[in-house]
Write a structure and sequence with these properties.
Elements: E1 3-4, E2 11-12, H1 24-36, H2 47-69, H3 74-89, H4 95-121
Antiparallel strand pairs: 1-2
Helix pairs in contact: 2-3, 2-4
């Protein structure tokens, strides 16, 4: 069974169940990024990758829309841009986004608990 490294995105064979990283260096670098409060360089997999792809598509469509409305009368440009944004708003109630947000909240809670334990042990 192959998995995808949560740091570099490379496909690999995990050595144990629940393995998240392809190598020790990816694991250590990822831990250091989390410790510093920096975001992950690449989406882990599955839902996060799907969401990242959707966000790239939103950015691309925004750029294309701006090119299309350039030089149009303000009312028509505004109408086209409004339709585009309303299409994006439908994504806000997407179960994948809600799942990613939930997972992120759980990770933040776990990290806060780990920090409390470390401070308490000192």
């Amino acid at each position: 069974m192959t998995a995808q490294c949560q740091k570099c995105g490379k496909d690999y064979e995990p050595k144990r169940r629940g393995g998240k990283f392809c190598s020790t260096s990816c694991r250590v670098v990822q831990h250091q990024l989390i410790k510093r409060g920096e975001v992950w360089g690449k989406p882990a997999s599955g839902d996060e990758r799907y969401l990242a792809d959707k966000l790239v598509a939103v950015g691309r469509s925004a750029t294309e829309a701006l090119v299309q409305v350039e030089g149009l009368p303000a009312a028509e440009a505004f109408s086209r841009l409004r339709a585009l944004v309303q299409g994006w708003a439908g994504v806000a109630h997407n179960s994948i986004i809600e799942k990613v947000q939930y997972n992120e909240e759980q990770e933040m809670k776990a990290q806060a608990t780990r920090l409390k334990r470390v401070k308490a042990s000192k």
